[in-house]
Amino acid sequence: MSYEYIGITVLWLFLYGYLIVASIDFGAGFFAYYARLTKQDHIINKLISRYLSPVWEVTNVFFVFFFVGLVGFFPDTAYYFGQSLLVPGSIAIVLLAIRGSFYAFESYGSKDNHVYMFLYGATGLLIPASLATAMTISEGGFIEETANGVHLMIGKLLTSPYSWSVVLLAIVSVLYISSTFLTYYAHRADDDPALAIVRKYALFWSSPTIIASLTTFIALSQHNFAHFQKAIELWWVFGLSVAFFMIGLFLIYQGKYYGWAFIAVMFQFFFAFFGYGASHLPYIIKPFVTITNGATNETMGLTLIIAFIGGLLLLIPSLIMLMRMFLFDADYVQGKK
Amino acid sequence: MFFEDSVLMSRLLTFLTLGFHVIFATVGVGIPIMISIAEWIGIKKKDPHYTLLARRWTRGLTITVAVGVVTGTAIGLQLSLLWPSFMKVAGNVISLPLFMEVFAFFFEAIFLGAYLYTWDRFKNPIYHWLLSIPVVIGSTLSAFFITTVNAFMNAPQGFETEGDKLVAVDPFAAMFNPATPTKVAHVVSSSYLTSAAILATIAAFIMLVRKSSIYHKKALKLTVAATFIFAVATAVAGDSSAKYLAEYQPEKLAAGEWHFETEKNADLIVFGTLNENNEVENAIRIPGALSFLAHGDFNAPVEGLNETPEDERPPLWIHYMFDFMVMIGFYLVGISFLFLVFWKMKRWNEFNRWLLTGLAAVGPLAMLAIEFGWIFSEVGRQPWILRGFMTVAEGATTSPHVGLMFLLFLALYIVLGVGCLVVLRKIFKNNPAELELESRYPHVKESDKE
Ligand code: HDD
Ligand code: HEM
Ligand code: HEM
């Protein structure tokens, strides 16, 4: 495999990692607010904050990793995304900032602040929506390059069915991933009242997830037929995704093996995400940046890959340590520590 | 109007974000080492006062780190949003340390999480202390990596240009450029200094407004001793930075010192004003001191600003930034030294009100020096974004909306800044150290140990 492909694979893995951990976090924000509105917050919010407080910084780093790596491996993307995304990008930063500070501020004081809870819930949905837009733009047809620079065609973006279907898909996926994880976590914590609630959420959000995926496919065929065709050629990858969806749903429905159920959900998104990514190539930002013309020079590419491997050797043991302390330490999960 | 000038607004927005971020970044780099020292002393001396210090500092740190992380994420994205052409070039040459910086954050974030939530989990407290080491290493490494990026902007190397293509890229040469050693030394030492100074300010301030307890006396002694050591290190590193400038970026030093003609035995100009002919008035002149600062020799020649083409000269007002920074540096060395002398000379009371008042100022002053130093360094690079290769105007976005975004971020930073202060106040006000000491370590009486 050439270094460009290793690079994009690594980045895609990180984005996938972010997709999972951030979805858990974003969805939890929404559920926390929803539970408050429906006066169930005393049952589930402790569970949510117990898991989230220690790990939110790690979640954020996944994202930083992705965009720093993207600029490193494919510097041209900095130019095209940078020029066209100033306004949506800035809005996403502000939302992320509000959310990030929530954790720190919340744990000391403003816990019962209704406005803050609302922002926490709302940003949980708005951030995925705004980040998904970057994905939409990379599909082509939304940015133009003229003599005085690169511009985003906002009108076109806002009236495109494809763009809206992606936003919808992002939001329901977040809620589905999050609720399946919380189901597992509540089960680990032996917290039956909370389990009953979050399991209901998981079942509820399963069918919208699959419907939104199909809609997005149809909208893609209208917007970028070439990409759609390539995706069809990879039908088996998407088929696996659907199969894992079925497994996950079945297990949750049965009320057993919640851990396996969540793993199945992770595989469901893994295959869908990599099927999407593979069929997107060779374009990174259509039609301006491809994987070959946009890549950095070979020396830098190889150096980054080596740095990456070195970094992983350092990080994976530390991450395992963190997970054993908070995620898999039964006493901690159950609130005894 | 200037609001529509996307280059100017990009510069202002970068200034705003970095100026805000650097406050939290500095604290994030320096406080962990203070925490680690305090916890270590607490374990070695079996003195819960120090352990409590470490605990309380950590609690404050969680809040500032959160703001550091969100503003850092902002600047990371803004670099691409505001300087797309610059990042395209930088991505090809200097992305290695940017990438490694994220690993350092990751490492730090993981261990900070573990450190925070495990105070009472281990039977042997040494294990908990050990968790602080990766936090110290991680935060200092992230300062190291990001500073090499900034050093590269000042002394770009490690590539060749062929038309508008970059060839023969050498990531390590780019990272270890001539500006790196002095810059890293000065940035890291000044971060440690500023953090120690802020903690000293807190202790001194409380002793001024309330009855001083042993806890605060110990806190003050520890933090002022650290301030003294780091202040000396900062001054030494700053002096080497000036020597670096004299050799590689003489125009920045010349503009900072109002030194126009190349000459031997050059005077150091402190403060003063310029008249319309660019002649210095009302200044204090220290004979030969500039030659000494630049080359370590009172007779060495120092290049003047007139050697630089007119359109490549940085603005002259950075002179004041330099002077303020250096003055604060001397003040920090001086006052912390005075305290140490009073402390060691048993005859004098080191906790007298005058000294405490002087010490209460060190934290804010050090933070101001950080801001002045960065403004001096960054504006002194003008008009270049990559010295000698790309100007600021060439690097900036052409989007017409930067002005609006400036207002958006200004509002965000006001909210974050106020929120941070309110929460910090809440944490410590409702829970003074004396009370916490009593509830956590009931066997220790106030007057127990000295
Ligand atoms: C507490 C903060 C602090 C203090 C007391 C000082 N500095 Fe400083 N200085 C910084 C904090 C700082 C900084 C914020 O860390 C800078 C900004 C950019 C950089 O590299 O470091 C800096 C930059 C900076 C530069 C420019 C480097 C460059 O652009 O490459 C020079 C020449 C000095 N300093 C010299 C000094 C001297 C001679 C000091 C005498 C005591 C001094 N500084 C005190
Ligand atoms: C270490 C990494 C840093 C990088 C890569 C960086 C990058 C940049 C860039 C791209 C600009 C715009 C070009 C210019 O106007 O000169 C800039 C300007 C500026 N930066 Fe830095 N910067 C760094 C550190 C800092 C820090 C920590 C501060 C802290 C206050 C700072 C203060 C400024 C200021 C004040 C300007 C505006 C200069 C002007 O108005 O002309 N920089 N920096
Ligand atoms: C262009 C300049 C800069 C960029 C792009 C940048 C980027 C970032 C990012 C992305 C984060 C958040 C990381 C996370 O998600 O955990 C961050 C936090 C931080 N930055 Fe900056 N930074 C810049 C300048 C600086 C400088 C000059 C310093 C040091 C002197 C610094 C030190 C830190 C530290 C210590 C943190 C983490 C706060 C903590 O966790 O303790 N940064 N920065």
TrEMBL record, chain A:
It is a multi-pass membrane protein. One of its GO terms (molecular function) is oxidoreductase activity. It comes from the Bacteria. InterPro entries: Cyt-d_oxidase_su2. It is found in: Cell membrane. The chain crosses the membrane at residues 6-34, 55-74, 80-105, 117-137, 162-182, 202-222, 234-253, 260-285, 305-327. Its EC number is 1.10.3.-. Signal peptide: none annotated. Keywords: Cell membrane, Membrane, Oxidoreductase, Transmembrane, Transmembrane helix. Belongs to the cytochrome ubiquinol oxidase subunit 2 family. This is Cytochrome d ubiquinol oxidase subunit II. It comes from Halobacillus naozhouensis.
Automatic annotation (TrEMBL), chain B:
It is a multi-pass membrane protein. Keywords: Cell membrane, Electron transport, Heme, Iron, Membrane, Metal-binding, Transmembrane, Transmembrane helix, Transport. The lineage of its organism: Bacteria, Bacillati, Bacillota, Bacilli, Bacillales. The keyword Electron transport applies. The keyword Manganese does not apply. It is found in: Cell membrane. This is Cytochrome ubiquinol oxidase subunit I. InterPro entries: Cyt-d_ubiquinol_oxidase_su_1 (IPR002585). It holds the Pfam family Cyt_bd_oxida_I. Belongs to the cytochrome ubiquinol oxidase subunit 1 family. PANTHER family: CYTOCHROME BD MENAQUINOL OXIDASE SUBUNIT I-RELATED (PTHR30365:SF14), CYTOCHROME D UBIQUINOL OXIDASE (PTHR30365). The chain crosses the membrane at residues 12-41, 61-82, 94-117, 129-153, 184-207, 219-238, 317-342, 354-376, 404-424. It comes from the Bacteria. Its main location: membrane.
